Amino acid sequence: MFGAVAFAQSNVSDVVQSGADNTSDVTQTGTMNDSDVMQSGTINRSSVNQLGADNYSSVSSTGRLNSSQVQQVHNNNESYVTQTGQQNGSRVLQGFVNSGGTISRVGNDNYSEVTQTGFRNSSYVAQQDLASDPSEFNDSYVVQIGDLNSSSVAQLGDVNFSDVIQNGDGNEGTVYQNGDGNFSYAHQGGFGFTSNDNLSQVSQVGDDNYSHVDQYGPLGTDGSMSMVAQLGDANQALVWQDGDSHNSVISQTGDGNLAYTQQNGDNSDSEVMQTGDANWSEVYQYGSGHMSIVTQTGDMNSSYVSQTGMTHMSTVTQLGNSNVSSVVQIN
Description:
Layout: E1 2-6, E2 12-20, E3 23-29, E4 34-42, E5 45-51, E6 56-64, E7 67-73, E8 78-86, E9 89-97, E10 103-108, E11 111-119, E12 122-127, E13 135-136, E14 139-147, E15 150-158, E16 161-169, E17 172-180, E18 183-188, E19 195-196, E20 199-205, E21 210-215, E22 221-222, E23 225-233, E24 236-244, E25 247-255, E26 258-266, E27 269-275, E28 280-288, E29 291-297, E30 302-310, E31 313-319, E32 324-330
Parallel strand pairs: 1-3, 2-4, 3-5, 4-6, 5-7, 6-8, 7-9, 8-11, 9-12, 10-13, 11-14, 12-15, 14-16, 15-17, 16-18, 17-20, 18-21, 19-22, 20-23, 21-24, 23-25, 24-26, 25-27, 26-28, 27-29, 28-30, 29-31, 30-32
Antiparallel strand pairs: 9-10
């Protein structure tokens, strides 16, 4: 067991290690930084580097072969990492110092919380930007329960929010937000439901965009995929998939667009592509084997698709402004 702790004036560090072959390195440069590390088990690894002032880091690893790295640059950042199980890995960067000792990324007033329970889960959180324009007041929450889940969150800009919950096995969640005031919720399992082998990818570039993806429910959700890409400002994407092997793609370019997709059953596909401003799309597919493709180019177009039963297909293409389409198919 080895622990190395470096102090600057008014910094506080507490390291408690129990078991075999634990290693903890804490480097704090600045003032009023606080670090707590507790490791219990076998071969835990932890490295905390806080450069700046008023940063707080808490790491607790229980189990076997856990590893955690936290680096916070510059001021008023908070990070909490809790890992229970075996071979989990977590990395939180709220600022970055390169190998030459130069600060290349800066974050201030950011908050990150990672909780992992199970086997071989991995989490990566980066809330940072160039030193000339730091990322500030971002929040990231990651909860992974089960085995072989992975999560990656990157937030560049200010006042962004990300919430990733994965309850089950083999789920993958990726969130990328570049801009200010963006919100992302990605839930694959949770709230009493488990989901397995699902993929959720969210990319939001611009300001005040909102994405909410739920892949879970009473039917059980395995092997489903959701992709959300929003470029512009004040766009909204909402996805709920309950059942197995669904695919949903939402791509919105422009401002003030809204897309809602709900798929319940098995093996349905939905694709929504909206380019322009203030477009609106709703897709509801209940049953099995449905296909819906909605393409809207222009401004203030609206599309409604509802398919119930089995193996319906709908294709909607609207070019121009203020077009309206409604498709209802039932068997």
